[in-house]
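Justification of resources, computational component.

The compute hours requested in this renewal are based largely on the per-chain cost of generating structure records like the one below. Each record pairs the submitted sequence with a full structure-token output. That output is archived, and it is also reused by downstream analysis tasks.
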Amino acid sequence: MQTIQILALGKCKEAYLRDACREYEKRLSRFCRLQCMELEPVSLSPEPSEKEIAQALEKEGTELLKRAQGVCIAMCIEGKQMDSPALAKEIADAAAYGGNNGALTFFVGSSYGLSPAVKAYAQIRLSMSRMTFPHQLARVMLLEQIYRSYQILGGTKYHK
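The structure output for this chain reads:
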């Protein structure tokens, strides 16, 4: 069974979003070993300088990279956009050709994004949209797209 890991900086605070995450985690348990890990973002001053942000991203990036497994996907605004079937293909390719039981790791950064080192390490940079979403909502959207990918791969009617 494929391992899908989501490494996210920050906690999902809103109850309705945590409920949505749990629902997709439950659905995905039939298709993969899902590991969602919330890491503590580095605390910043109320008005952080660019240097302070860069240092925080570097520290966060080090913690993310320590836990990376298999094919890595950095969720970042400058990444490429792909449709659901293309994401399903990436998941299938990782399962078929990736070592580590076809493991796939998604990096979800803090509100300041991901460090350049994490983006460089990732084999894929993925953007959900040119629009900006709260990180907590983006996590639900990512889980739904992973679930949709498995439905596409299984040929179900979920994806129309």
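The longest strand covers residues 71-80. The helical segments are 15-28, 50-67, 84-97, 99-102, 116-121, 135-154.
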